[in-house]
Specification:
Elements lengths: L8 E7 L6 H8 L7 E8 L5 H11 L4 E6 L5 H14 L4 E4 L11 H7 L5 E5 L6 E2 L5 H18 L11 E4 H6 L12 H11 L4 E5 L1 E2 L11 H11 L9
Parallel strand pairs: 1-2, 1-4, 2-3, 5-8, 6-9
Antiparallel strand pairs: 4-7, 5-7
Length: 243
């Protein structure tokens, strides 16, 4: 596996009504010991002014924040695909995907980058030794999270223990190899579908433990209905032939 010296790291963050969280996320990202880091904000026309906040941050951080402005809400998957394309066009070596709500702690990213020296994909995992979820989560939320994850793994055959996690890092070669036109899920199931594609294509995927915490501000968009819908859409992956 080729070692990348001083890699260009792009962090792709899809947003919808995250104006409150974005400044703190940006501050924490640029406090990391990663010299060649950029933040790509993919905003789906947030009515709370998230796009305008991103432009203000771009000026504050000398252009290291880039905005991909979309004009309507089209789903998590298309937003990530737009961000990945932007990062690849800009010459990123490593691409990190994460949520804007600070449930994914940016301080894990240097460890992900180090792990990419030995792996093609790093998945931030709640379900390996050392990982976990916010201690304030109630029983129902824990059941939705762990039960939904178990169900999606059972439906798809994905081996990754945190199949639904959205905190990941990729070598650029991985994202260039995935045929995104074949991705079925625009919503939550996108995460598991990408994991499935990476496993089928034989990439080296490792899981790094993370603690998933409650979002700092705003309201979670996750629900039992979203989990069930994702399982239904992902069911055909069980019989999808290897490339």
């Amino acid at each position: 596996m080729t070692e990348v010296r001083n890699p260009k790291v792009a962090v792709v963050v899809p947003t919808y009504n995250e104006a409150e969280n974005l400044p703190l996320l940006t501050e924490r990202l640029f406090s990391l010991d990663i010299s060649a880091l950029t933040l790509i904000v993919v905003d789906d026309g947030s009515p709370d002014g998230t796009g305008e906040v991103a432009l203000q941050l771009a000026a504050k951080y000398d252009g290291r924040v880039e905005l991909v402005q979309r004009h309507r809400k089209e789903g998590l998957g298309p937003a990530y695909i737009a961000g990945f394309s932007h990062a690849l066009d800009a010459g990123a070596d490593y691409i990190v995907q994460m949520d804007a709500d600070l449930s994914h702690q940016p301080e894990y990213i240097p460890k992900f980058v180090d792990a990419l020296e030995e792996a093609d994909v790093v998945v931030g995992s709640r379900y390996v030794s050392g990982g976990g979820v916010d201690e304030h989560w109630g029983v129902m939320r824990r059941l939705i999270s762990s039960g939904g994850n178990w169900g999606i793994r059972a439906v798809t055959g994905v081996k990754i223990k945190d199949a639904t996690g959205g905190f990941k890092a990729f070598r650029q070669s991985v994202l260039r190899s995935i045929d995104f036109s074949q991705i079925r899920c625009a919503g939550f199931g996108f995460q598991a579908e990408i994991n499935h594609a990476c496993e089928r294509m034989g990439f080296v995927v490792i899981e790094h433990p993370i603690i998933f915490i409650d979002r700092t501000m705003g309201k979670s968009k996750m629900s039992l209905g979203i989990m069930v819908e994702a399982m239904w859409k992902l069911l055909p992956l069980r019989w999808k032939p290897a490339p």
